[in-house]
Automatic annotation (TrEMBL), chain B:
GO annotation terms (biological process): integrin-mediated signaling pathway
InterPro entries: CIBP, EF-hand-dom_pair, EF_Hand_1_Ca_BS, EF_hand_dom
Species annotation: Pelecanus crispus
Pfam families for the chain: EF-hand_7
Name of the molecule in the record: Calcium and integrin-binding protein 1
Domain EF-hand, chain residue ranges per copy: 73-108, 118-153
Keywords of the record: Calcium, Integrin, Magnesium, Metal-binding, Repeat
Length: 541, 154
């Protein structure tokens, strides 16, 4: 994103390498739509205004290349090459999304193969664990203790799952009815909790947008900042409270332990990702809320949001900064004091709390949440990936230090291989979720007429048809043919056929594996027969 | 390997390292064996001393290292593993051996051992999976068969 969009803009604006640029004025639009006065560079400003602007992405930051509003160039010339900036912006967005998609799919395919074929536990899992379970390379007593505990936990969970399976098979009709109705009731409670979260996020975003005042510098610094950050605060609170509620509720549902963990994880993931979705939805309802005719001509609420893409980018930027601050704050102000308290104060309640456990799933969910914000926000704020990279770099080292000093290892070790695939699937869900808002905003919502590279187009997507019309006629015909229905429908059917074939192939492989296992069991019975024959033959020579 | 062995000996006997036997307490100080729950069994299996004090000579030490190295073949490893797991040295793994084995794996403390019911269930499952002639014990060939199919063993 950086190399294709930001770099050319900077080069062209400053005239390096003999380049020049052209800004074509927007045509066929109403004049009032194009008025945009960002409140940056207003002469002498106080220091706290800088801090406020840094934290909330307004003021001087608005005019930098951080946000969408900076990219006003329509075409740039590097010596003789003509570089179409709006097209580059759009294509770079698609390219990075496609790259991320391919990368995730490549990583998860390996895990998927394992899962598909070995989904049921190996038929020798107990022997494998007992005879080959100990890692003979362990030299440290602490590590040995950990290994002991993990082996014990694994054996116990396996035995418990077996017991549970037997119990489920033995359930009577009445018990089944009771359990299913209980599960439906608890799912209703979960949906209610989720709706509560979504509604509060919606209200908070609306309130924040209405009350945050960017121009008046006299307003109370803290109050203004707090109002700006209100959606982020609400989202973080929801992300924190909801998992606690879910893990409390799931104890009533009587599932097997592995399924419990999976279901709680799925619910937490849903809460986190849907929170972002609701935030964006409420932003859009504000942006597209149009009552006057003048407003309808522009297609969006031009009074409040002359440059709505920057506004969305600003929200994403705030979310990311707030996420970063919260992680730092939790690490510094909760973990370290807790560790100090536990080691120096020996009263009963403190010892009972103990050190925080290192939960792999919680940390992975945090990372996925941050990454989804980054994906969504990059279209509106091209330098966001750079900020995200720096943020994760710092967070990695902070978490590493905090882990070594303040956390104790989880009492429930997670099996790494199957969880790896699951986390990649969740990351994929996050990416797909990022597609949806980007798709809607590129193709459906009219782009700002006052700022950004798409001023002369109706929607951001309109750049592509305009460029296609500029191609030679032969290529145009080919592209039109590809996009038409006559091509799309047979293509779709061929893809479906290939998918059906591959699914059948996978099913066949699975059956082959089953048959081979049965054959192994038969072999052992043959051996048994032969051993008996041999002993008989030995007995009577 | 000679250097490691001679480090275990007290200073005055270093020159005769080839012929001297190292007492068990010294062997157990090796870092690889310190945290190993099977340390006593390992010493016992590899030691060729006549008076049963589990001391090891240099040849025994070399034997031990060669069996545990990456280049040992599966048969050799499974043979020695069988001897290590066989706590009462009767040539077969019966229920008592399996019970001691599981207790070694899960740790020595009071709260880290499986309950009796769990132990029974576990031993039942193990025997179901590996006991081919259904005599309630695992002999060397059954053990080698099971181990050859376990991906984690090597």
């Amino acid at each position: 994103m950086f190399s294709f969009v930001t770099l050319p803009s900077i080069i062209a604006k400053y005239g390096i390498f003999n380049s020049s640029f052209a800004e074509s004025p927007p045509k066929n639009t109403e004049l009032h739509c194009t008025v945009y006065t960002p409140s940056g560079n207003q002469g002498l400003v106080y220091f706290y205004t800088y801090l406020k602007d840094l934290l909330s992405g307004t003021g001087f930051l608005e005019m930098t290349s951080l946000f969408y509003g900076y990219y006003t160039i329509d075409a740039a010339w590097f010596s003789i090459l003509r570089y179409n900036l709006p097209l580059a912006y759009l294509l770079a967005t698609f390219a990075y999304l496609a790259l991320s998609l391919l990368w995730i799919i490549k990583r998860s395919v390996e895990g998927f193969k394992q899962n598909l074929v070995h989904h049921e536990d190996q038929f020798q899992s107990y022997c494998n664990k007992v005879f080959a379970g100990w890692d003979f390379c362990i030299t440290d007593p602490n590590a040995a203790r950990l290994k002991h505990r993990s082996l014990q936990y694994e054996l116990q969970t396996d035995l418990e799952e077996e017991r549970l399976k037997r119990k489920i098979a033995d359930r009577t009709m009445k018990e089944k009815l009771r359990i299913y109705s209980l599960r439906i009731f608890i799912n209703i409670i979960v949906i209610a909790v989720l709706s509560g979260c979504f509604y509060s996020i919606y209200r908070a975003t609306v309130f924040s947008q209405e009350n945050s005042n960017k121009d008046v510098g006299n307003k109370n610094f803290q109050a203004n900042l707090f109002v700006q950050y209100l959606p982020s605060v609400v989202i973080t609170l929801a992300n924190f409270i909801a998992p606690q509620i879910f893990s409390f509720l799931i104890t009533f549902e009587d599932y097997s332990p592995a399924f419990e963990i999976r279901l709680t994880l799925m619910r937490c993931v849903f809460v986190r990702l849907a929170n972002i979705g609701v935030l964006l939805f409420s932003l859009w309802s504000q942006i597209s809320h149009c009552t006057t005719d003048k407003c309808k001509a522009c297609g969006y609420n031009y009074e409040l949001y002359p440059c709505w893409e920057s506004e969305v980018g600003r929200e994403m930027y705030k979310l990311m900064i707030f996420d970063f601050i919260i992680i730092l704050a939790v690490t510094l102000f909760v973990d370290f004091p807790r560790k100090l308290l536990v080691t120096h104060c020996s009263c009963k309640p403190v010892q009972w709390c103990g050190l925080q456990e290192f939960g792999i799933s919680d940390n992975v969910l945090e990372i996925i949440y941050g990454q989804t914000i980054c994906w969504i926000g990059t279209f509106f704020s091209p330098l966001l990936p750079a900020i995200a990279t720096i943020k994760y770099f710092i967070i990695f080292y902070i978490k590493k230090i905090s882990l070594i000093h303040t956390r104790k290892p989880a009492a429930r070790p997670i099996r790494a291989s199957s969880s790896n695939f699951f986390f990649l699937v969740v990351l994929l869900i996050g990416l797909v979720l990022a597609f949806v808002p980007l798709g809607i905003s590129i193709a459906h919502i009219p782009s700002s007429k006052a700022c950004g590279p798409f001023r002369s187009f109706n929607t951001s997507w309109a750049v592509v048809p305009a460029t296609v019309l500029g191609f030679p006629t032969g290529l145009q015909q080919v592209l039109h043919a590809i996009a038409s229905e006559a091509f799309a429908v047979p293509f779709f059917m061929v893809i479906c056929l290939i998918m059906v074939y591959l699914i059948a192939l996978a099913g066949a492989h699975k059956r082959v594996v089953e048959q081979l296992r049965e054959q192994l069991a038969l072999e052992s019975r043959d051996k048994l027969f032969l051993i008996r024959k041999i002993t008989e033959a030995q007995r009577c020579p | 390997a000679y250097k490691r062995f001679s480090e275990l000996l007290p200073k005055e006997e270093r020159e005769n390292a080839c012929s001297v036997r190292v007492p068990k307490s010294q062997i157990l100080k090796l870092p690889e064996l310190r945290a190993n729950p099977f340390q006593h069994r390992i010493c016992h299996v590899f030691s060729t001393s006549d008076n049963g004090d589990d001391s090891m000579s240099f040849e025994d030490f070399l034997d031990m290292l060669s069996v545990f190295s990456d280049s040992a073949i599966l048969e050799v490893k499974s043979h020695y593993a069988f001897r290590i797991f066989d706590f009462d040295d009767d040539g077969i793994l019966d229920r008592k051996d399996l019970e001691k084995l599981v207790n070694c794996l899960t740790g020595q403390g009071e709260d880290s051992q499986l309950s009796n019911a769990e132990m029974e269930q576990l031993i039942q499952n193990i025997l179901e999976e590996s006991d081919i002639d259904k005599d309630g014990t695992i002999n060397l060939s059954e053990f080698q068969l099971v181990v050859s199919r376990s991906p984690d063993f090597a």
